[in-house]
Amino acid sequence: MRDTKHQETQFTSVAHDPMDSRHHGSISIPIYQTSLFAFDNHDDFDQAMVNVLDHHVYSRGNNPTVLYLEQKLAELEEGEVAKCFASGMAAISSAIMSVIRGGDHIICTHQVYGPTREFLGSYLERFNIETTFVDGTSMEEWKAAVRPNTKLIYLESPTSAYFQLQDLQALVELAHSVGAITICDGSWATACNQKPLKLGVDMVVHSITKYIAGHSDCLGGVVIGNKLHIDRLSQNEYMLFGGIMTPQSAALVIRGLRTLPLRMQRHEESGLIIAKHLLKQAFVTKVNHPGLISHPQHELALRQMLGFSSLFSFESDEPVQKLREWANRLRYFKIGVSWGGFESLITVKAIEDSSLQGHHTLVRIYVGMESPEDLIRDMNEAWQ
Predict the structure, then answer these.
(1) pTM here?
(2) CA 74 to CA 82: how far, in whole Å?
(3) In angstroms, what is the C-alpha Rg of the chain?
(4) Distance from CA of residue 30 to its chain's centroid?
(5) Structural domains of the chain, with CATH
(6) Neighbours of 255 (CB within 10 A)
(7) How many Å apart are CA 369 and CA 310, to the nearest integer?
């Protein structure tokens, strides 16, 4: 799956820079904690004001620390340009708004991230923009949902509850055939393990908060794509909505970016160990992890991904309350949302499907950086 040499070469260029005399040889990019930038004379100021995004004028438009991170993320994703935002949702909503207008139609996988679904399915209705949610695994449903006014196909592969994939190349072809744009949320895999732009996707969004930052201490989002798409987004949604990333957050993300490939390798290995362990447990009826041979889309995962991460879920016939009590007894798994940091996480909820009989519980597991052997021992002891 993973081209190790290519990945190592690529991440070396992302993590290392030539000595920059502007920063006195500093190994880390300085934090430019400033709201504005002054000029020697008014002629220089007037020239910069012609295009504030290409000059350091005001940090809402262009801050050197944030710009450095954007350049690194674009390089990592093999895109032309990146734009960072204050959160994943700021990036997602801005990317969507940059390509649609009143009267347009959107198609999206029904398992998309909850706030994204709310934005598409509820918020945009006030602008006469309708979204059709489909089974992301069914090309027939994607094709049947197309309308003359379909302008966006929004993807999230894998999804973050049941970890279903979409066939990115096939959906890019469908979008191009009807004149629609494609946006893909790649937060689960990161650029280490999936390259949607190389598969033809127009724009990729990431919640930087997760694996990219990697330390559970800052929020952020990014949109990456070609210059045409990102320039249009930058001039409009980025500048007008104001959901910018701060230089402090950018510095924290830059720190995390340096260890991203090493962390993702550990997450992949540990996640698969825990997932395979859970497959053998009597209280588990199904494990949703694309890296498992038992996953119904495992072959697709091998075809369009370079590797896997450590967020997955399992299903159980045990009552929700029993599994919540089990989660409460765990020592190393904290109960909380999100993922990507050192600490392992767990959440338990009922499966909302009225067609199912009896107890059906979904447990989402994030495997952090702890020893997988300790995590397994923790789970086993808590179940007794």
Answers:
(1) 0.93
(2) 5
(3) 22
(4) 26
(5) 4-257 (3.40.640.10), 260-383 (3.90.1150.10)
(6) 15
(7) 10
Tokens of 231: 């320039």
The answer, yes or no, to whether the previous bond of 158 is cis (omega within 30 of 0) is yes
Report the distance separating Cα 187 and Cα 261, nearest Å.
14
Burial class from Cβ neighbours inside 10 Å (0-12, 13-18, 19+) for residue 282 reads: exposed
pLDDT tens sequence across 275-331: 999 999 999 999 999 999 999 999 999 999 999 999 999 999 999 999 999 999 999
Are the C-beta atoms of 183 and 152 separated by less than 8 Å?
A: yes
Alpha-carbon span 163 to 157, nearest angstrom: 8
Q: Which residue has the tokens 């495992």?
A: 298
Cα→Cα distances 363→136, 165, 312, 318, Å: 21, 19, 9, 11
φ, ψ (nearest 5 deg) of residue 296: -60, -20
Q: What are the structure tokens assigned to 40, written together?
A: 């020697």
Distance CA(63)–CA(118), nearest Å, equals 31
| Strand 344-350, strand 130-134: pairing | unpaired
